[in-house]
């Protein structure tokens, strides 16, 4: 049995798995009939629980900005979107109004029983286009939101999503932007209850997670256009690692990014080319997002691919 098969044989699916599978299937079948292009976006970090009754877990930095912003741009370009994200990470549209930003957009007119709330005039310019895009996506049923928390939930959901996406063949695009943990504690090595401090400092042995890109590219969605992300903190190894990944899994594109500069620049690495996509200082000051350029470039690549791989 391969490492990934062993994973599925020894880890139970999450409790909401069957519900999500039904939603994914229905969404894919509906949009397949309409002849749409579809993108699966994975977004946010995964947790690695240390106990079955989880009190503590290992986490990572990702807030899901890349995935949430990209979803909006893919919708703008006419794709339908499966937004597979970490529960409570950023989501398309609402990300513009998270926390105090939203409160600051509103005005309270406190007039006793006739109290009302309005949007401040200068915030209407911000809110209106986002609201219009949101309504268009929502009313047309063009986005499906499914959530994961642990790395194990992510693995189950990713395979189910791929199995439903396979019917789109080359029209399916996978945009794997989630920050998935490379290490975890396998289910059979995890204690049931909270680790007690009385026994002294615990030694926690993490294991490597199986690399799902292999079955994903070869078995689950063999005709799809698969884009993965590679995150590094040492620039000198970024392109080498991205190219290694392409050579190993034989998918179409790896987008490399550095933790420190991920909002300003990324590098597109294909089988025989690499080029940087970046924002100028001026573009950043004007509020432009790098995901706009990333998505435009990815779609150009997908369109080229469709021309040569249409059945
Ligand atoms: C990325 O590299 C994403 O661009 C970020 C986005 C996670 C950096 P934010 O959520 O960040 O907008 O703050 N995602 C993939 C990272 C990753 O874990 N890749 C694995 C690897 O590099 C394999 S797919 O080995």
UniProtKB/TrEMBL annotation:
Keywords, sorted A to Z: Ligase
Gene Ontology MF terms: phosphopantothenate--cysteine ligase activity
Record domain DNA/pantothenate metabolism flavoprotein C-terminal: where: 164-274
Gene Ontology CC, one term: nucleus
Pfam families membership: DFP
Entry-linked SUPFAM superfamilies: CoaB-like
The organism's place on the tree of life at top rank: Eukaryota
GO terms for biological process, alphabetical: coenzyme A biosynthetic process
Entries under InterPro entries matching the protein: CoaB-like_sf, DNA/pantothenate-metab_flavo_C
Family, similarity comment: Belongs to the PPC synthetase family.
PANTHER family assigned to the protein according to its UniProt record, in alphabetical order: CORNICHON-RELATED
Protein name in UniProt: Phosphopantothenate--cysteine ligase-like Protein
């Amino acid at each position: 049995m391969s490492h990934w098969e062993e994973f599925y044989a020894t880890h139970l699916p999450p409790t909401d798995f069957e519900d999500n599978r039904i939603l994914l299937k229905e969404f894919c079948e509906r949009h397949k009939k309409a002849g749409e292009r579809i993108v699966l976006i994975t977004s946010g970090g995964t947790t690695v629980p240390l106990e079955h009754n989880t009190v503590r877990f290992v986490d990572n930095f990702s807030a899901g900005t890349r995935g949430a912003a990209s979803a909006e741009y893919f919708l703008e370009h006419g794709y339908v979107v499966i937004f597979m994200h970490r529960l409570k990470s950023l989501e398309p549209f609402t990300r513009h109004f998270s926390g105090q930003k939203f409160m600051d957009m509103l005005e309270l007119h406190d007039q006793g029983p006739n109290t009302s709330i309005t949007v401040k005039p200068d915030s209407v310019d911000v809110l209106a286009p986002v609201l219009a895009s949101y309504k268009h996506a929502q009313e047309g049923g063009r986005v499906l939101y499914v959530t994961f928390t642990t790395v194990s939930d992510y693995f189950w959901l990713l395979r189910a999503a791929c199995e439903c996406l396979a019917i789109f063949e080359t029209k399916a695009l996978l945009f794997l932007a989630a920050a998935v943990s490379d290490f975890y504690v396998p289910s059979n090595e995890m204690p049931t209850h909270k680790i007690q401090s009385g026994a002294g400092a615990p030694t926690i042995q993490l294991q490597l997670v199986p690399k799902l890109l292999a079955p994903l590219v070869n078995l689950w969605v063999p005709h799809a256009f698969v884009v993965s992300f590679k995150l590094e903190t040492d620039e000198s190894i970024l392109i080498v690692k991205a190219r290694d990944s392409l050579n190993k899994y034989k998918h179409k594109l790896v987008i490399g990014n550095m933790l420190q500069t991920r909002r300003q620049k990324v590098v597109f690495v294909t089988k025989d080319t690499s080029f940087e996509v970046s924002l100028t200082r001026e573009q950043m000051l004007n509020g432009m997002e790098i995901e706009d350029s990333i998505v435009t470039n990815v779609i150009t690549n997908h369109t080229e691919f469709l021309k040569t791989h249409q059945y």
